[in-house]
Amino acid sequence: MKDLRVSYGAIEAVKGVSFSVARDEIVTLVGANGAGKTSILRALSGLADVRSGSVLYADRELRGVKPHEIVKRGISHVPEGRLAFLNLSVRENLLLGAYIRDDTKGVEDDLAKVYELFPRLKERARQIAGTLSGGEQQMLVVGRALMSECKLLLLDEPSMGLAPILVAEVFATIERVRKMGTPVLLVEQNANMALSIADRGYVLETGRVTLSGKASDLAQMDEVRAAYLGE
Question: What is the pLDDT of residues 56-76, one digit of tens each?
Fold first, then answer.
């Protein structure tokens, strides 16, 4: 993203933000509510109107590209709140992630990979998604996103509403996704956990990047520790 600006009516939510994600990275956006984090993810996935600036993926402009076409290019967005299809089974949810694909063999291969990544989903393949725990639903929506031949995963607040033991499990899952070769752009209010697994981070305040660098360095900065790590 280069000098990205996103507005909702007269309110400018993102004010000239620039950042990048490399092929093998986990990058996290850290900031308080209203800092512009979710608006950035929505701009990347075509769900928010970009007022100005550039959104490049693999050297191709995404501004003006429809959301379903962005999914076809390899970007999958898991929004805040999980949003599983609660009346459908685990398997049906996962297959809906592949709705843009027509390679039946490839879909079955990727389904097997998702089950390998999340053995619990395989055990519950026929179970209705609405009966899963919050942590299991988070695994499900990540798996569903990966079924679209995802090459960049956008995650918005994956730990929201989860018990601490499940939060640790979700972050371990994010690390496994990266190890499988899928880079991750992570928005997360649990800054301590986000910075512990990320390679790099950007701190946002009221729509602007105020700090950036290696995640381990950001975690040691006094202003970050005071504002976001509760120290």
Answer: 998 899 998 999 999 999 999
Q: Sketch out the chain's domains with CATH numbers.
A: 2-228 (3.40.50.300)
Digit-coded pLDDT (tens) for 176-205: 999 989 999 999 888 889 999 999 999 999
Q: Which residue has the tokens 């619990």?
A: 120
Q: Give dist(CA 186, CA 142) in Å, integer.
A: 12
Contacts of 97-105 spanning 24+ positions with Cβ under 8 A = 97/143, 97/144, 97/145, 97/146, 97/147, 97/148, 98/147, 98/148, 100/68, 100/71, 100/72, 100/148, 101/148, 101/149
pLDDT at 154: 96
Could you tell me if 79 and 156 are in contact, meaning their C-beta atoms sit under 8 angstroms apart? yes
Q: What Å distances lie between residue 182 and 138, 146, 153, 166, 167, CA to CA?
A: 17, 9, 7, 22, 20
